[in-house]
UniProtKB/TrEMBL annotation:
Belongs to the ABC-2 integral membrane protein family. Its main location: membrane. This is Transport permease protein. It is a multi-pass membrane protein. It comes from Iamia majanohamensis. Keywords: Cell membrane, Membrane, Transmembrane, Transmembrane helix, Transport. Pfam families: ABC2_membrane.
Length: 253
């Protein structure tokens, strides 16, 4: 009698697959010098430079009080959209994602792992930026919980936008587009220029973007000027629509 064929290996539980991929995403992120520059150094440089050189129409007595909420929003853009979009785009073009697609790791598992890695990086960013802000004289008078909630919702939306780019476009196109969008949102996201200082048409566009909505929330929460309800609606809309689009359009190759 012939021996029965061995049973095929069982796939690891979903949580274990996601956890393993999340750890790999974090290692790869921290090894990429350009990713560290974009994610950590640029927001800090913007915060320090424009806090010490008072050249912006911030409308606050101390520039750091305006800049810190905006730079926190910029940190979300860089870590949730720009960096992951570029990295994932090149992983897709070099066949890394195609090989991952042959494993038990599903498209949903991959997207969840990448989003989890983004949240870990953002936590490090927030700690660093708050420490730098305190050193520059920022007064933490509350509102951090509301600002943090807005950043969490925005992260989901920006990650979805990044994965749509990375999962549908060639790598070099993703690189160019992600950096272009980053620069546009830098100026239309209330980071260095207050949204109410923009021309009327640009202000409407800015407030409809997730960057503008997030800026409204971080500024309103940390400066205690109140958070418009429409900002939450815009942000929640992006947080729902962008991930759904990514889950539908993302391709392994």
């Amino acid at each position: 009698m012939t021996a029965p064929a061995p049973a095929p290996p069982r796939a690891a539980p979903t949580a274990r697959r996601i956890s393993a991929q999340l750890r790999m995403e974090l290692r790869l992120t921290l090894r990429r010098g350009e990713s560290v520059l974009l994610t950590f150094l640029i927001p800090v440089l913007i915060l320090v430079f424009f806090s010490l050189v008072d050249v912006l129409p911030t409308g606050t007595e101390d520039p750091v009080d305006f800049l810190l909420p905006g730079v926190l929003a910029l940190a979300v853009i860089s870590s949730a959209m720009t960096g992951p979009a570029i990295a994932t785009g090149f992983e897709r073009s070099t066949g890394v994602l195609k090989r991952l697609g042959l494993t038990p790791l599903s498209r949903r598992d991959l997207l969840v792992a990448k989003l989890g890695a983004v949240f870990v990086v953002e936590l490090l960013q927030v700690v660093l930026l708050l420490a730098v802000g305190l050193a520059l004289g920022w007064d933490p008078s509350g509102g951090l919980v509301v600002a943090a909630l807005g950043m969490v919702v925005a992260t989901v939306g920006f990650a979805g936008v990044g994965m749509v780019m990375a999962g549908t476009l060639p790598a070099l196109t993703t690189l160019a587009l992600a950096n272009a969008v980053y620069l546009v949102l830098l100026f239309l996201g209330g980071v260095v220029v207050p949204l109410d200082e923009l021309p009327g048409a640009l202000q409407v566009v800015a407030l409809a973007l997730p960057s503008g909505a997030l800026s409204e929330i971080t500024h309103g929460a940390l400066e205690h000027t109140g958070v418009p309800g429409v900002a939450w609606l815009v942000l929640l809309g992006w947080a729902v629509a962008a991930p759904l689009a990514a889950a539908r359009l993302f391709r392994w190759e």
